[in-house]
Amino acid sequence: MAESEYVLEAEGLTKQFRGFYAVNGVNLKVRRGSIHALIGPNGAGKTTVFNLLTKFLEPTSGRILYKGEDITGTGSAAVARKGMVRSFQISAVFPRLTALENVRIALQRPTGLTYQFWKAEEVLDSLNDRALELLAAVALDDAAHTPAGELPYGRKRSLEIATTLALEPEFLLLDEPTAGMAHEDVSRVSALIRQVSKDRTVLLVEHNLGVVADLSDTITVLQRGEVLVEGDYQTLANDPAVREAYMGTGHA
Ligand SMILES: Nc1ncnc2c1ncn2[C@@H]1O[C@H](COP(=O)(O)OP(=O)(O)OP(=O)(O)O)[C@@H](O)[C@H]1O
């Protein structure tokens, strides 16, 4: 069977909380190899959609396909094993362990190397090399031996991205990757997302519209649980409905 053009397809995705539609009939298609952003004003339903897609919430109705396969009823761990990985899903950062040790632990998970204790020395050496590569990819090579808890906020987020990448996701889902970051960290993480997107698909929820403009091939704007409009940044920036959704006045 030919591989679908879309890595992810959501059809009629709906989530009700006690009668309130947080997400209502959302159709979403994420093109293979693209960076796709989900934006919208506060309360639009972005986090709920993100949690539905990553199986942290069960939809009230609707269907989710990953690479053409229906994963609506599949658990989050099983989905992650298929290559659809949410940052911070499996890769918690342990504050007392060094950055290198954190990445090494993440590297042990998908392969089951933890059980090959008799090969510990050899395995750890090969893991070290790969862990250092991943740290370099997020510009943390100078912090390899620093306990994760001592890293400043922005660098901790970079470490979380490195531990996520250790799982070799084919489809990476990022929830507000630049939230709470200082300006220089935002640029660094943006560049990092662009770099890691080269051989994978990325879906991100992001409040920083500069980051969205800079990175996204496709942007879906949510409003009150529904898709308001979808397109590239230029198209959306000139769309009166998007301006109104953001400004709430219609005469912005
Ligand atoms: N567990 C829940 N129980 C009840 N209502 C919820 C729950 N989770 C979300 N909601 C409601 O659903 C709506 C969408 O919330 P959601 O967090 O998905 O929006 P968002 O676009 O991510 O907002 P923000 O930008 O503020 O993070 C909101 O009105 C919210 O109050």
TrEMBL record:
The keyword Nucleotide-binding applies. It comes from Fodinicurvata halophila. Keywords: ATP-binding, Nucleotide-binding, Transport. Residues 8-249 form the ABC transporter domain. The keyword ATP-binding applies. InterPro entries: AAA+_ATPase, ABC_AA/LPS_Transport, ABC_transporter-like_ATP-bd, BCA_ABC_TP_C, P-loop_NTPase. One of its GO terms (molecular function) is ATP binding. This is ABC transporter ATP-binding protein. Gene3D superfamilies: P-loop containing nucleotide triphosphate hydrolases (3.40.50.300).
